[in-house]
Each structure stands twice: as C-alpha cells, then as structure tokens.
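Practice problem: DUF4304 domain-containing protein
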Amino acid sequence: MRSAADEALKSVVVPDLRVRGFKGSYPNFFRDRGGHIDLLTFQFRSSGHSYVCEISFVDQDKSNVAIYKDTEPKKLRTNQTRIRLRLGSSPDRGVNDHWFCVETVDAVKAAHEVVALIESQGEPWWFEHQRRAAIKS
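Answer key — structure tokens:
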C-alpha cells in the first residue's frame, strides 16, 4: 500500500507541484513567493494505508513559525507552523482532519484528488494568507 501511494504521489502530484513552482523533495515541498513561503508535506500513518497532505505557510516576519524560527526556508516543515490545513478538510464545517486512504481507494485516484485539492483549496488558502500578510506590512 505505502509503495503504491509513494509511487502515485511521485508520478502524479510532484510534477504538478514543480509546475506550480515548488521545490524540495518528497515528502516535503516549499515555494518562495517573494519572501512568503508556501509549505506542503505528506505524512503517512504507521500502517502506510493512509496519508494526509498538510499545507502551511511562513510569512516574512515568521510569525506563523512556532519552533526553530532560524531554520532556512527550504528546511521549514508544516509541523513547525501554527496555522496549517489538511487538504480535503473543511474547518468551517468542523472537519479538521482528512486522510487519503489507499487501502480502499486506488492510489493513483487518491493522488489525482490531491492535485485537484491543491488547485481548489490549497492555492486560494495560500493566496489569502499571503494577501493578509501583505496588508499587515
């Protein structure tokens, strides 16, 4: 299960992230947009049957970074930040957790769902946080 998920994410999602300007290596990615850093990471359950795709950001003054503020941008991880989102969750409806289960769904289909959620949920979320940070400056 885990190997099929890894292969699907690397062949479907990683090329999409590259087109979007993300750097890094699987499972951790970052994109620098003028000092505002977008973060994305994949985290697997120990069983390997499911994973989350978590996104976050680092604003220019690093106010969203909770630990290791002196870490260089390319080494920052979502778990170092205060505000983050799991793609597929709906915080406005009280659902803060979403797992992609490759035990019950084809790994490639799940990877395509991740790409769709990056576009529909991730990009607007990152943009809004970048906009808010720019207003504060």
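Discussion: DSSP finds two helices and six strands in the chain. Students who identified this feature from the tokens alone can consider the problem solved.
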